[in-house]
Amino acid sequence: MSDTSFFGVRQLWRPGILFAATLVLAACSRPAPVEEPVRAVKVMTVRLGGLQATQEFSGEVRPRIESRLGFRVAGKLVSREVELGQRVRAGQVLARLDPQDYRLAADAAQAQLGAAVTNRDLAAADFKRFKELREQNFISGAELERREAALKAAQAQVDQAQAQLTAQRNQGAYTSLVADAPGVVTAVEAETGQVVSAGQPVVRVAQDGARDAVFAVPEDKLTLMRQGSAVEVSVWPGQTQLAGRVRELSASADPVTRTYQVKVALEGRQLPPLGATVTVQPKVRSEERNSAIKLPTSALRQDGQATAVWVLDTKSMTVLSQPVQIATADGNEAVVAAGLQEGQQVVIAGVHVLSPGQKVTLYREKAASALASPPQTAVGASLGTVAPVPGK
User: Quick check: pTM over 0.85?
Assistant: First the structure.
């Protein structure tokens, strides 16, 4: 090989070596950091706003008196005369037990009464005869007193047998369950063929008359409900307005929901039907109405164990995390008890995609405008070929 060819080979290898070295250096160098995008956010300025004058509670219309009726004696249920939702009148038979055993007991008491009457009549005859003998001085006074005591004992046995017969007859009458007052059957708790004990509920009857709106309130709203305070009741869906007054307030909270049950006596001629849904609005005194900072729930986020919001720093256009304390809810907004000051700007949308110190811009809605498209030059099928212009 000549020197000229060898020199040509060396000239070809030099660019390849330089290119390989460039690749190695590029692989070892650190990649440039990706810039965090600047997000557009919606903000609101913190202002003091008035709280709603009233609170609404959802409730249900219930009867003032709802009786769970049961038999006063035990036995087998042989018939049930009413169905769920049926209206009943006072004295109407609701259900019956098998009365056979009670009839036999009444017959036995009747027989005991007959035997007692016979013994009483015999003792009375003996007393009459011995009384005549005493008048003739044929017997002593002590003997007459014994006959008189026997007559009184026989009379007591008659009275006892009579009372037992009356009790047995009452027991037989108790095998028929009757309604105490007119109303509506709201529940059936026993069926035909079932053996029930004395006092076991069989039928539940809501008596006609006064009705209540029953609802539950949390502990922090319990001060709005006072015994005898006036409330406004709206009946859904007709939105009929009724006046009411707090009649009963539970003394202890429900062990599961930790709420207090309130009963409001409804006033008016046309009361809503049983089971109707109502909303109750207590009439709050004017001095109880005050102002507070309110935020939409979309502005809140969970930061560890605390509730926080993003506060905008207008100088650096960055967001800072600010813990807040929520007092209660006012409609669809949260009432802030502490953590914010009037005039601060709080992010109210997109709070879950932000990070502390992140730069942001203010979101502004742009009105859509229709732009006319300019005429385009026709392009031929072949790339880079311009269609011929007529006349050229």
Answer: no
